[in-house]
Specification:
mainly alpha; Growth Hormone, Chain: A; 2 domains; two-stranded antiparallel ribbon; 70% helix; General substrate transporter; glycoprotein
């Protein structure tokens, strides 16, 4: 049975990014639950390393998923690799819903994480490969918005289910994770395959037609289609001469792209925003907020996240990637320093844990009034800066820097880097709340400053460039990163050249047999 194919890229993106919603659902499937009496009583008040293991289980599975995503995507395609991942989400969710102990909960989150590892790396690749250069950022950012909507929806589902007696509270909440996966499975067969993947595996005629259907209403003679196809062909020829295997990630300047793609994802984690995203409920308790007030205060941050990422959606392709990375890291660092400084100067130690029953992960209480309000305010502000900068841009940048021959596996390496550090920080953060308390935020502030310096020195501007033009940006003869500017794509000149050839009666489409 052949399904009708959707070629409207915005609609394609909305369906594909349901994979991001899975990510968001799993992130906040714990946020609203970990402070409930039902969770604390059933799992025997997990704290420190045990709570760290539960929280980081998603990242552990994602490390494995990211590692296999690239070869899998190159073999069966971007779209079908996402479909494959959905199977593990269904199994993992079933394991969580039926869990009887901490070990089973961790196992279910690992399986869900395997799915997230594949979708978080391959959905951006898929979107980057079907988008026009001048719209690529706004298309890939839909993935980030989907993640954030998933976080918000799941958080308030968990908050609502907290009023249910017994284990049904968290089982019901976790069971709703089936819903976005169901709609993703239904929608995927209607999506086109990536034209660049089709070209990579030798299905040239289908690649040209798909490119035309996406970019020009099916007209294979459109100058944009011809120019873009010729760029794809030129790059493919160069890549075939560049060697096979893992050498292609390091030879002829590729090490710069490998370093940029992997490091930008690592810094997204090391910037420390996920400490707020995952554990604002703990910070709220430190600031003296309890019960429904603490839960709603934590939930509002997710709405703030969506609002400001939505604002950036309007401007992402008008603002340089470098600009957002550098200033975003500095802004986040400032917020970390304020939160850590205020906590350090205005707190009392509560060794037994704050709250009733006590939360053993929260062992300091910030003085009420201005100090507590400042901590909450700058926690929100940190999320605002993150939503405008590193949250969307790190995924966009990592999807842009790779060549056609390395993009799927390269993005897998980038996502692997993200998830390795996510796992490490997930294990580190709950014990850090207990052992070094406010100093945790000072550490992240220093890391943010280091990230800004790294972006300035090593990350050239990719905004407004075709994926093929980015080849030049990272070549041995390319410009220094700090001398690069957004826009200035050569594709417009190539389109004009195609139009000129058409006027002169020359062939309009590069013969497929030469590819």
């Amino acid at each position: 049975m052949k399904f009708p194919t959707i070629y409207n890229v915005q609609l394609v993106a909305l369906i594909a990014t349901l994979g991001g919603m899975l990510f968001g659902f799993d992130i906040s499937s714990m946020s609203a639950i970990v402070v409930t009496d039902q969770y604390i009583e059933f799992f025997d008040n997990p704290s420190g390393a045990i709570q760290g293991a539960i929280g980081s289980a998603l990242a552990a599975g994602s490390v494995v998923g990211s590692a296999v995503a690239g070869p899998l995507s190159d073999k069966i395609g971007r779209r079908d690799s996402i479909m494959f991942a959905c199977i593990f989400w269904l199994i993992g969710t079933a394991v969580q819903v039926s869990c009887q102990n901490t070990g089973q909960l961790i196992a279910g989150r690992v399986l869900n994480g395997f799915t997230v590892g594949i979708t978080s790396s391959q959905v951006p690749v898929y979107l980057a490969e079907i988008a026009k250069a001048e719209k690529r950022g706004s298309l890939v950012i839909i993935q980030q918005l989907a993640i954030e909507f998933g976080i918000l929806i799941m958080y308030f589902i968990g908050y609502g289910c907290a009023s249910i007696e017994g284990t049904a509270s968290f089982r019901t909440a976790w069971g709703t994770q089936f819903i976005p996966c169901f709609f993703l499975i239904i929608g995927l067969p209607f999506l086109p395959r990536s034209p660049r993947w089709l070209a990579k595996v030798g299905r040239d005629q289908e690649a040209i037609q798909t490119l035309a259907d996406i970019q020009a209403g099916g007209n294979i003679d459109d100058p944009l289609v011809v120019a873009e196809w010729e760029e794809i062909v030129t790059v493919m020829r160069a890549e075939r001469e560049a060697g096979k295997g893992w050498r292609k990630f390091f030879l002829n300047g590729m090490w710069k792209r490998t370093l940029a793609g992997m490091s930008v994802q690592a810094w997204q984690q090391l910037a420390g925003a996920n400490v707020i995203v995952y554990y604002l409920t703990y910070i709220a308790q430190m600031a003296g907020l309890t019960g429904d007030v603490a839960m709603v205060t934590s939930g509002i941050q997710y709405a703030v996240f969506i609002i400001f990422t939505g604002v950036m959606w309007l401007f992402i392709d008008k603002t340089g990637r470098r600009t957002l990375l550098v200033w975003g890291a500095l802004g986040m660092g400032f917020c970390h320093f304020v939160v850590g400084g205020v906590m350090g100067a205005h707190h009392i130690d509560v060794p037994g844990g704050v709250g009733d029953p006590p939360n053993h992960n929260v062992v300091i209480a910030v003085h009420s009034g201005a100090p507590a309000n400042t901590v909450i305010t700058f926690s929100y502000l940190l999320i605002v800066v993150y939503a405008l900068t590193l949250a969307p841009v790190c995924w966009i940048y990592a999807a842009e820097v790779w060549s056609l021959g390395t993009r799927a596996t390269g993005m897998s390496l980038a996502a692997l880097s993200n998830w390795v550090f996510n796992f490490a920080l997930g294990m580190f953060t709950p014990p850090a709340f207990v052992n070094i308390t406010w100093k945790l935020f000072i550490i992240f502030g220093v890391l943010c400053v280091a990230a800004a310096a790294w972006f300035w020195v090593l990350c050239p501007e990719t905004c407004g460039k075709t994926l093929e033009e980015i080849e030049v940006m990272f070549s041995n003869d390319g410009p220094y990163p700090w001398k690069t500017k957004k826009g200035g794509s050569r594709l417009e000149a190539e389109i004009e050249a195609v139009k000129a050839r058409k006027t002169q009666g020359e062939p309009e489409v590069l013969p497929v047999e030469k590819v």
